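Support reply, case 0932

Customer input (verbatim):
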Amino acid sequence: MKSINQKQSTSMSPKVVVMGALVLALSSAVSYAETYCYDFSNFADTGYQVGQTISTQHADINLLEVFDENVNPMQPNPNGLTSHNNVPIPGQGKTPSLWNHGGFTIQVVPNSPMSTVTLKFAENTGATDQQLWNFGVNNERQIWRGQLSPLDGQSLGEPTYGGRVRIAVGGVQIPDSYWVRGMVTLASDPVNPLLPNSGIQRFSIGRSSQLLIDDVCMTE
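Our regenerated output:
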């Protein structure tokens, strides 16, 4: 006759079998998020027009108007968007960056919804600090005058375009200048993960003049 200890050593409980199968299933489903970054080092040093689309490997970039407070489009500078090797983000010491002279909103439409987006920026506030801003995420847009910092802590986005996205803006004043440089972070709100196609489906940033953008990174 086998002892109780012998029986326990030669058999496995159903509970252990189920747990083991569950662990295997979960481990096989693990995926690692991909991050795609663009530093504009290969961006053509030329002028662009409103209505143009620039296709990249992971997203399309649409060039749109900047709208004023009355939701009327400004007349864009036809040579307003360009990339210059001698214009870095102030205080970064790295070239090039995307230089928006004015009158453009740069809309990025990823090939698939993203969970987070980060980008470096620099804005020239000027003496009056009354530059016009357009900022949008998932088909919802904000229009205001001043600096980018008031956008910090807000959320934008419509349910049918990927849902709400939280926005964080951090910036510092460059000494002895009108320039402010910083980082923008967009994070898809995970409150409703079952929302179809949830994530950052599109985002846009535009300013009436003097905006630099660099190191745009998108994470799936």
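We compared this against your earlier run and they match. Two observations from our side: Confidence is low (pLDDT under 50) at residues 1-11, 15-31. The chain is about 10% helix and 40% strand. Please reopen the case if you see a mismatch on your end.
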